[in-house]
Amino acid sequence: MSKTILIADDSRFSRNLIMNILHREGFQVFFEASDGAIAVALYKKKSPDIVLLDLTMPTLNGLDALRRIIEFDPSAKVIICSAMGQKGLIVDAIKSGAKDFIVKPYFNDLGPAIRKLFS
User: Fold this and answer.
1) To the nearest 5 percent, what fractions of the chain are helix, strand and coil?
2) Residue 5: what are its φ and ψ, rounded to 5°?
3) Which range of residues forms the domain containing residue 104?
């Protein structure tokens, strides 16, 4: 698949893990951000097809980054990928414009969630 995916997570290990999972699923093109502010800037510059955002990041957290991305592009396809799966956070993310919320570890859920946004 030639769709572009922006992966925003402060953990290099998590970003690499996500890329490996998505490579196995057939996705090819990735942009990486280590915090929410970089994710917003990259979104504005590169216009990726999908954004995967962690919630807990320095400089700008994932929920605030989501809101800024949606403010810039209301049709943005953003999936929150976080270890923090509390119901309130999930509701806030969906109300703020996220298309999905996947709780880590997400080994089996990530590929299908992304494919769903492309269908």
Assistant:
1) 45, 20, 35
2) -130, 130
3) 4-118
